[in-house]
Amino acid sequence: MLDSTAFVARELSLPERDVAATLALLDEGATVPFIARYRKERTGGLDEVQIRAIEERSAYLRALDERRATVLAAIDEQGALTLELRRAIEACTSKAALEDLYAPYKKKRRTRATVARERGLGPLAERILAQPRGGDPAREASAFVKGEVESVADAIAGAKDIVAEVVADDPRARGAVRQTFLERGRVASSAARGKKNERSKFEQYYEFAERVDRIPSHRVLAIFRGEAEGFLRWSIDVDDAQLVERLASLVRVDRRSPFGGLLAEAVEDAYRRLLTPSLTSDVRGTLKERADAAAIEVFADNLRDLLLAAPLGELPVLGVDPGIRTGCKCAALDATGRFVAHETLFPDRREAEAAASLARLVRRVGARAVAVGNGTAGRETEAFARRALKDAALDDVMVVSVNESGASIYSASDLAREEFPELDLTVRGAISIGRRLQDPLAELVKLDPKSIGVGQYQHDVDQRALAKKLDEVVESCVNRVGVSLNLASASLLAHVAGVGEGLAKKIVAHRDANGRFSRRADLKKVKGLGPKAFEQCAGFLRIPDGAHPLDASAVHPERYELVERMAKDLGVPLASLVGRPELVRRVEIERYVDDEVGLPTLRDIVAELEKPGRDPRARFDPPRFRDDVRELADLQPGMMLEGVVTNVTHFGAFVDVGVHQDGLVHVSQLAERFVEDPRAVVKVGDRVQVRVLEVDAARRRISLSRKPA
Hints:
It contains 29 helices and 15 strands. With 709 residues, the protein is of the alpha/beta class.
């Protein structure tokens, strides 16, 4: 049987010892963030990406082993399991190779070959496969003319059907055809019947062809969608004659044998009637899997950048959900994001009254910023807010445009109703917009990541794989930043390593019933939170101004005693060591290496002691849109604008320039030198300078460039 640990180690180019240790930790119930942060000595310092790759490949191989066992049992039950076949099956490292070996032994629905065998034509098929140098096929076939076999031609045709099925079931033949389709095939699409002259977003694919091994994921997904919506039909084209010739050489057609011609005909039939439909479907599936994986990776990268966007921090904010007919819903929040008050303003009808109300709300909570959703009337509302603040001598309060994607989904959710049962949907939306400015991560985790809109073809990809990947990204970001135990919502706590939804609700319930946690150790009093969960989550939960000096840091409680020793050896109280770089640098970490703690962990500890609870996110810097550019009609080719990257795909980056419609910087316009992957140049949340190339008002399309004019 395949040694999965050794195989994964070779495949990922990692030491086998580190892979084995990682798998052991995962089997013990350790989470990926915990392993990456607090078990570096055991894994050789593997990072989260490497650990997740080990986890993923190991899961694939476990599933492969389960299928392998099923296949072996099924073939053995038929009495057909030879030692050679067993060894071949046990050596398989992919599901495709395993299924190719199993193909001849699968129970099939009634086929032409099945009928031919029932009519007793098996021996004649064996003669064709054997290709003797002597004999007369017609004369030998005449011996089988009886019953339902009415003629020599019938006998030969039936025997060729059997041979074709044997060839189609041959793992070598299946592998050769699949490989050729994947390496030399071309995806060829055309307009569906009646659609050739119809305008659509799929027009570029009405006459299109590209090699299978080169076509990028977004084009594959576009073609699949075009097919699903009835605009396209497509195929995978190869050189059929060349491939048939390759199959003929694989089965060693002997042209000197009187039976060679029949075998060649059966090979061609196997290719066109049996292999091509089956393997075209396989290759379509492979193309879709590859495209899905690439698209999911793009979505994951964008989501990670969005979640790790710079927070304004713990400052009071006024959140504004813009509106014209129904008014602007304003929600005042204190520094912790607690809702204080709300009011509806109508700046387009009663600007003076609205301005006075806005200033009053800002003063009530001491707001340091006004967060305005970037939807309809967003730019007009920003301009109004700036005027109101200036007139009220509140010039030091910033006005910030906030991406409101998904805010309406949150405001109508069960979670929002539970949090603010007495408030209107739009007020909840204003609260969400304000909190997004204070801490994007804490607020965005309340949403299904798919509703945030930072992917490509997100509804076309494998939804289970997408959800799994996005959950991993959220978990990674939450634990990388850390969570304030006394401020975090259940939604945020649920993503902390080792917690989950159920425990998160119990933590919040305990906090509501007993007051703030004063130390991390108090977590053990939460019903249902056992030693394993505490081990996994404690290091990622922070208690600023807690009873223990290290509770505000990322130092794990299991290492408190070690840090106390460091402080004692320096002759200072523990509290004096935390946050004092000049003292921390005097720690000789080599003195504290032992069988459990090595230099990687010790370096992490002293780095944390220098800057306890440090936030890895960048400092907040608000975007600055031009005041004279608010609508699509305001744009002119050649304009230079500042914008914010809202989405990155394989074909370019979308940029918000403040006109309610994102513009596209095509990959060819991202940098002076062409880049294959836009993510190497920009990421979601980046502030960029762009030049307007073209504005298509009819289709609401904006073409932008980052290249100099």
